[in-house]
Amino acid sequence: MPKIFVSTSCLGGTRSLQEILSVYSSHGIENVELSGGLDYIEDVAAVLKQYSHLSFVIHNYFPPAKVPFIMNLAAQDEGVRMRSVGMAKRAVELCHYYGLGLYSFHPGFRQEETLELGFELSSSRVVPYKRAFRAFCRSVEEILEGARRLRVDVAVENLEHKNQAYMMTRPEEFLRFQEIFPEVGVLLDLGHLKIASRRLGFKATDFLRAVRDNVFEVHIHENDGRVDLHREPLKSDLMGLLETIDCETIVLECRNLNMERILLNLRALEKVFA
């Protein structure tokens, strides 16, 4: 049976890592994905040490920056790109320090600088795909230098193609990327796949076929097929897809739920693999 994690983004009403981990721990949740949407933490090591009985994986924007920004590993602006790479490298080092096996991250965006908060297009220029992809590959190689040395696995997430700056949403993009970086896994986000496949007109099964041998982690959450709502997947058709995917790390990634709903969805996920 895979390990089922609950994202820190699931619990509504708080942006405090300390509070979220306290609530999760008190309700018997043992596996937690540390993700974005949190307030800045002065001493993240001290907080994690307090909850060393829990198992963690780290996703993208963690630990949160003191001055918030949208990571862009494909930025043409070298300052933005290096700031984004630096955040990823810190996450990899944190994984190594705590013996965590996986760091997953968003692909870059086709912007000269980066997107606005909320992942909206900014005033900075949208750049040609090839230029953005080259910058993204350069960033991945720089992240991999530390990940290889520290023996931390890394995975890149498929996105939902919210606007023209989005990359790594189609199966052919992942096929090409996996040829270049066979050691980098895929964070398969089923909610994002639902939107991208409808918006861009490809079959979800084609995407699953393209990445099936390289899935390191799965995010599950539901939406209306148009907007990335991160609703609970309880009774969703997406739950049935989990049985077809060979992966040891499954993450419930809803937003703004109370603990009763989180536990209901967690139990439903556990039943899929029982």
Describe the protein in words.
- The structure is a single chain.
- This protein has a single domain (3-66, 101-107, 151-272), classed as Divalent-metal-dependent TIM barrel enzymes (TIM Barrel, Alpha-Beta Barrel), CATH 3.20.20.
- The longest helix has 22 residues, at 129-150.
- It is built from nine helices and eight strands.
- The N and C termini lie close together (7 Å).
- The protein has an eight-stranded parallel β-barrel with strand order 1-2-3-4-5-6-7-8, surrounded by four helices.
- The protein has 274 residues and is α/β, with parallel strands linked by helices.
- Helix 5 packs parallel to helix 7.
CATH topology: TIM Barrel
End-to-end span in angstroms?
7 Å
CATH level-1 class:
Alpha Beta
**Biggest beta sheet summary:** 8 strands, parallel, barrel
Whole-angstrom Rg: 17 Å
β-strand percent reads 5-15%
Name the poorly predicted regions: none
Level of helix content? 25-40%
Give the structural class.
alpha/beta
Q: If helices are DSSP runs of H or I spanning 4 or more residues, what is the number of helices? A: 9
Set out the fold topology.
Blueprint: E1 3-7, H1 17-26, E2 31-34, H2 44-50, E3 55-59, H3 78-98, E4 102-105, H4 129-150, E5 153-157, H5 171-180, E6 185-189, H6 190-200, H7 204-211, E7 215-220, H8 238-241, E8 249-252, H9 259-272
Parallel strand pairs: 1-2, 1-8, 2-3, 3-4, 4-5, 5-6, 6-7, 7-8
